[in-house]
Design brief:
The complex is a heterodimer of chains A (about 500) and B (about 575). Helix content of chain A is about 75%, strand content about 5%. Chain A has about 500 residues and is mainly α. Chain B is mostly helical. Chain B has 3 domains: about 240 residues, no CATH class; about 250 residues, no CATH class; about 70 residues, no CATH class. In chain B, α9 packs across α12 and α12 packs antiparallel against α16. The longest helix of chain B is centred in the C-terminal third of the chain and has 42 residues. Chain B is elongated, with a radius of gyration of 32 Å. The chains are: A mainly alpha (about 500), B mainly alpha (about 575). At the A-B interface, α17 and α18 of A face α6, α7 and α20 of B.
Chain lengths: ~500, ~575
């Protein structure tokens, strides 16, 4: 085995970990040094991930293995699914770092912030690359612990309360997964994630136990994936600074939960076992409930970030819905939504942060005519919002299309009803914002030509949403192109279904 | 090489002009009519049957032309070009954003005509529908905003209906390419649901009967050039959607056919009658559009009833749609043009003459394109349906002809006699645009046979049924003259017809969200109160314990409690042993 290929999956999470440690030791005023380390490491990581993507596409084998205790190994392994998530987090981390540098300029405790920020990304990468359940759990818990300081970063009463709530939800969630793991090991020995599942050898005699384990794992992961009724922490966590919200909602935390679901369903249990245990209807019901409930709650929020938070609750469950249908097309839709939702939601949170930062606007009722004052930010916001509704050519349409036609293929036409209800609700809470931003009457400024010179806010805050919005547009518009997220999701599906 | 490029440039050119609006708005404003020229060129130069594929766009896009869509592209691009020219002369275009929305909607409209697969069609359809919102609410008054809201709600509804139909068909048929879909997907049950979703989804855009309510509100609300493209070109996108997605000629669908012909006939008559009572000229024209679209809905229904005659009926629909689009475009552009504005003499007479052409053509007067289109549709239906049904149909046509003539008399009357000055005064470019489009309308008896060689029409046919195409107009003019002289008070009904009824009926439902919120808040408050109680008691626990400890320290209390507990335990112990 090539030594480089062996260490590679270990190095990728390690880079951000080391960066985090170094940043902790920097003095608060070493602003340029910190910025340099942040951006350099984020850039290096994107390059490393790119190399690994090319390698995996050519069927190279990257695995890092180390015995922890007994016959339980610590395994980091790069396969097509993990690389989808790693690429998403690497690219969005780079963008979010730029945004966070601009956003937190001049505010206190930046070394602490960026240190934990790096840990958080390191943990996300680890989750993506984890080759078995225990490795997954280790990183998963690390993620919980490293996001807590970010949520309470501001130190206000509200944020401390939100932080407590966050821990109160996620720590028990983590322990459910741990219990599930221990039970599973006692049943089936040290199993690893493998394409099309790795529990076939115990499937025959342990049906009910496996169902219970599945329930434990899904409940534990459902906390982070914000599935109703385990979603309570997410809307209150929106008191965190905008870059943190962006990261929580789009890349790290909720995505870790959703990604975990994908892993458990496809690579631990495998589709055949899932079908045999007939657990999928329950997952489908839970995600349907979440999709509808989240959207209905979002309708009634006036606080912009709260509305976006409930929208996340709803949208992330598209992923769970897609995988619960158990057909190749819907699977592609669910997996690709992992990326698409990330791109669109991070754009929305960046924009919300910009409105708050520049104009101190937090409520939707204050957003009248905002498009004339911050045109580019509002353009990015509007496009991302249309994507959330599922209007082509934004990426959200592609996900919706695949989940919808996948449902018809699997003879589960009711899913279409869920999708269109959700679309209508999404339109119900996003279109009024767009209306206010561009068309609502404002006194005085109505006849002013809009200033399109990109000077509405600091470039570090303006470019990240523009870039992510552009990515969300391109991901949808050129979905048929090789190297699009859809293309990669199809590669994954092909391998999972052994097509 | 030029042909595939034209198929792309047709929709790409208006899109490329959008950024120019941000850099040099004035230049972009002037260039707007040019943006439609590649589309016009494509419709005339690209041979039918051309196709170009872009694999990486969406899920693999195809663009192409056949005889019908070439005709659609011709009138669409012509109307968009001339309406843009009209917009240049239309002063008080307050928001420059108008140009951006106009170009985006234009991109959408051209793209959907050219699209040869479902997903591209849907993309451009959505682009057109959402961008048009910006056109509809250009004037930003309260009334206009209301119209915009009705419009956007129906757009969203249409989008999800089409999405669900489309996702179903694509999966069952296993393809998204038009022409390969076939009709096997129309199974009893699911297939009918999908069929219904598409029929309704595109019916919203086409202004089909119970879904037409946005149209008489939105078309008058928009500025004149936007109304022209809405009512002339964009409304046909709904029709094209039907032709593209629904199984035309694949099989007989008697139920759906009867439904379409029934609702179409109802729209044909009812909308025209209701339109006669409109005081706003644009609302009147909108109702006339609904009426004419009703006729096209009937023709679509006929294809479902008699699939064997698909080719002939489709060509007829295209002929009819082309004439209606050009004519309606010219009528909308003429709103605001008054003969009184021009100097007396030959110039004024020219204006009056030009003002008369589109109404006459729409009322199917002899030697106009309208007469030709009506002749085409009538002879085609006569060939298809039974003689008895044809008698009824003739009656329907006569009635509709008469009402349309009355509608046009009222419109022209308002046009020639309007006393109040509308605040939009058309400029030179507007006159040019309107004059050109009117000229094209006058030429339609020659144009239609040239555009659709397969239809077998010729100019002579526009004068074929001379008497029957003259007397309704004459009668309507006569009635109008009498009416105008004798009756001073004119009845006018609000545009939007059944929408008001619908809103009235659903008014009680509108308190529902508020009720839900109130209920939810009440529940949450109650929960929070309990939570607070629990938290407070936990918070107070140490104090409580300290106090009770202090009390316990007092010997008497301690002794009593201790003795009491001891006794209780003993009794319990004995009891439980006894039970055993």
């Amino acid at each position: 085995m090539n030594g480089f290929d062996y260490w590679f999956p270990f190095i990728v999470p390690l880079t951000s970990m080391v960066a985090g440690i170094v940043i902790f030791f920097l003095k608060e005023e070493q602003h340029q040094m910190r910025t340099f380390i942040n951006l350099a490491v984020a850039g290096i990581k994107v390059i490393l991930v790119h190399i690994m993507v090319l390698g995996v596409y050519q069927n190279r084998f990257y695995e890092f293995r180390m015995t922890m205790f007994g016959d339980v190994d610590f395994v980091l392994h790069a396969d097509s699914l993990s690389l989808l998530f790693v690429s998403l987090s690497a690219v969005l981390w780079l963008v979010t770092t730029v945004y966070a540098i601009g956003y937190l300029e001049g505010s206190p405790n930046r070394s602490r912030f960026f240190g934990f920020f790096s840990f958080c990304v390191s943990a996300t990468t680890g989750i993506a690359l984890a080759g078995n359940l225990i490795t997954f759990i280790i990183w998963y818990e690390l993620l919980t612990l490293s996001t807590y300081p970010l949520v309470i970063h501001r130190g206000t009463v509200d944020s401390l309360k939100a932080g407590r709530l966050y821990l109160a939800y996620t720590l028990p969630g983590g322990s459910l997964i741990l219990i599930g793991f221990v039970w599973l090991v006692s049943l089936a020995g040290p199993v690893e994630f493998a394409e099309r599942g790795s529990l076939a050898h115990v499937a025959a005699q342990h049906g009910p136990e496996l169902t219970a384990i599945f329930a434990l794992l899904v409940a534990g992961l459902g906390v982070k994936a914000a599935m109703v009724p385990l979603h309570g922490w997410l809307p209150s966590a929106m008191v965190a600074p905008a870059p943190v919200s962006a990261l929580l909602h789009a890349v790290a935390v909720v995505k870790a939960g959703a990604f975990g679901l994908v892993r458990v369903v496809y690579d631990l249990f495998g589709i055949e076992l899932c079908a045999r245990l007939s657990v999928m209807p329950f997952l489908a019901a839970a995600s349907t409930l979440t999709i509808i409930y989240g959207s209905v709650r979002a309708l009634f929020q006036d606080d912009l970030k709260r509305r976006l938070a409930f929208s996340t609750v709803s949208q992330v469950s598209y992923i769970a819905l897609g995988i619960s249908i158990l057909g190749p097309i819907a699977t592609t839709g669910g997996i690709v939504h992992l990326v698409h939702q990330g791109l669109m939601k991070i754009t929305l949170f960046f924009c919300a942060g910009n409105f708050a930062e520049k104009l101190h606007i937090h409520r939707i009722s204050e957003m009248d005519g905002i498009g004339r004052r911050m045109p580019w930010t509002t353009v990015a916001f509007s496009l991302a919002a249309l994507g959330m509704i599922g209007v082509p050519p934004m990426a959200g349409f592609i996900s919706k299309w695949y989940i919808g036609s996948g449902a018809v293929e699997a003879q589960q036409q009711w899913v279409i009803l869920v999708l269109i209800t959700s679309s209508v609700l999404n339109a119900g809470y996003f279109l009024p914002i767009i209306y206010r931003a561009w068309f609502a009457p404002v006194e005085g400024r109505d006849d002013h030509p809009i200033d399109w010179r990109l000077g509405e806010i600091h470039p570090f805050l303006l470019w990240p949403p523009l870039i992510t919005c552009l990515l969300a547009l391109l991901a949808g518009l050129f979905a048929g192109a090789p190297a699009s997220p859809l293309f990669w999701a199809e590669v994954i599906t092909t391998r999972e279904y052994g097509l | 090489m030029i042909h595939p490029a034209l198929l792309i440039l047709a929709w790409l050119t208006p899109l490329m002009l959008v950024p120019l609006f941000l850099l040099a708005p004035h230049r972009a404003w002037k260039a707007m009519p040019m943006a439609a020229l590649p589309g016009l060129a494509a419709s005339l130069l690209v041979p039918a049957g051309s196709m170009v594929e872009i694999h990486s766009l969406l899920l693999g896009s195809r663009f192409g032309l056949d005889q019908i869509s070439a005709g659609f592209l011709f009138f669409t691009s012509l109307i968009w070009a001339l309406a843009a020219l009209h917009a240049i002369g239309y002063i008080r275009m307050r928001h420059r954003s108008f140009g951006v929305y106009y170009l985006l909607a234009m991109t959408g409209n051209f793209g959907l005509v050219l699209a040869q697969d479902m997903i591209s069609f849907y993309l451009f359809f959505a682009l057109m529908s959402f961008a048009s919102y910006g056109l509809v609410i250009h004037d930003r008054t309260t009334e206009v905003r209301r119209a915009g809201t009705v419009y956007i709600i129906l757009v969203v509804l249409g989008e999800v209906l089409i999405f669900s139909g489309m996702a179903g068909i694509a999966t069952i048929a296993g393809t998204t390419i038009f022409g390969e879909i076939g009709g096997e997907w129309v199974t009893p049950g699911m297939g009918n649901v999908l069929f219904g979703a598409l029929l309704l989804g595109f019916g919203i855009k086409a202004g089909a009967l119970p879904l037409h309510v946005w149209l008489p509100l939105a078309h008058p609300a928009a500025p004149t050039p936007a109304s022209a493209v809405l009512s002339g070109a964009m409304i046909k996108a709904g029709l094209l959607g039907w032709l593209r997605f629904l199984p035309m000629g694949e099989m007989a669908l008697p139920g759906w056919g009867a439904l379409c012909t029934g609702f179409g006939a109802a729209a044909l008559i009812a909308a025209a009658v209701y339109g006669c009572f409109q005081s706003q000229p644009k609302a009147l024209l909108a109702y006339s559009s609904i009426s004419k679209m009703g006729l096209m809905t009937m023709a679509v229904g006929t294809v479902f009833l008699y699939p064997d005659f698909k080719e002939a009926i489709l060509i007829t629909i295209a002929v009819y749609a082309t004439h209606h689009a050009l004519c309606k475009g010219a009528l909308f552009l003429s709103v605001g043009i008054r003969p009184g504005d021009s100097t007396p003499g030959p110039r004024r007479w020219l204006v009056i003459l030009l003002l008369l052409i589109p109404p006459l053509s729409l009322a199917d007067f002899a030697l106009t394109g309208g007469a030709l289109a009506k002749y085409a549709i009538k002879t085609e239906l006569a060939a298809v349906i039974s003689p008895a049904a044809y008698t009824n149909l003739s009656l329907l046509f006569t009635a509709s002809g008469l009402i349309t003539a009355a509608l046009m008399v009222r419109f022209t009357w308002q046009q020639l006699n309007t006393a109040h000055r509308p605040h939009h005064t058309p400029g030179r470019a507007s006159y040019l645009a309107w004059g050109t489009l009117t000229g094209v309308v006058a030429l339609t008896p020659l144009l239609l046979p040239a555009l659709y060689p397969d239809s077998g029409l010729s100019f002579a046919m526009s004068g074929a049924s001379r008497w029957s195409s003259v007397w309704p107009v004459a009668l309507a003019v006569g009635i109008g003259a009498v009416y105008a002289r004798r009756v001073r008070a004119v009845i006018s009904l609000p545009p939007g017809d059944i929408l008001s009824v619908f809103l009235l009926l659903t008014r009680p439902l509108r308190v529902l969200p508020k009720l839900i919120v109130r209920l939810a808040t009440a529940i949450r408050n109650q929960c929070e109160r309990y939570m607070d109680l629990v938290f407070n008691s936990m918070h107070n626990l140490p104090i409580l314990l300290r106090h009770s400890e202090a009390n316990l320290g007092r010997a008497a209390v301690f002794g009593l409690v201790f003795l009491g507990l001891l006794t209780l335990t003993t009794i319990l112990l004995f009891l439980s042993m006894g039970v055993r």
